[in-house]
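User: Hi! I have a protein structure encoded as tokens and I'd like to know what sequence might fold into it. I'm fairly new to this, so please keep things simple.
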């Protein structure tokens, strides 16, 4: 099947929200909050990795819990927007690197 690809003249950045202790031992089952606020930001996309629904609530279920990706005109803007989106999301023992994209700025 033919697939077409469209390139955009933009930059993107993805910040992973991980469970505290990852990649070693970590706990799961913590409620996740703030997804609606993060997804409401223009050009911010939240990708689920280690999540599940438990008793009608979204909870953590893995080491790499969510990927918060942003698209913007420049890398600096994409990095800032991705961290803004990640900052909306909360769960117990959440951890994220704070140097993503900084090397190339």
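Assistant: Happy to help. Inverse folding works backwards from shape to sequence: for each of the 105 positions I chose a residue that suits the local structure. Here it is:
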């Amino acid at each position: 099947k033919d697939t077409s690809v469209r390139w955009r003249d933009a930059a993107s950045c993805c910040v992973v929200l991980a469970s505290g202790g990852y990649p070693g031992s970590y706990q799961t089952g913590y409620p996740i909050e703030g997804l609606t606020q993060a997804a409401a930001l223009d050009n911010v996309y939240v990708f689920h990795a280690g999540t599940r629904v438990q008793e009608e609530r979204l909870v953590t279920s893995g080491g790499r819990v969510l990927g918060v990706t942003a698209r913007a005109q420049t890398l600096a803007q994409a990095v800032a927007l991705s961290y803004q989106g990640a900052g909306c999301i909360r769960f117990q023992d959440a951890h994220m690197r704070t140097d993503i994209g900084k090397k190339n700025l």
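A useful reference point when you look it over: The radius of gyration is 15 Å. Feel free to ask if any position seems puzzling.
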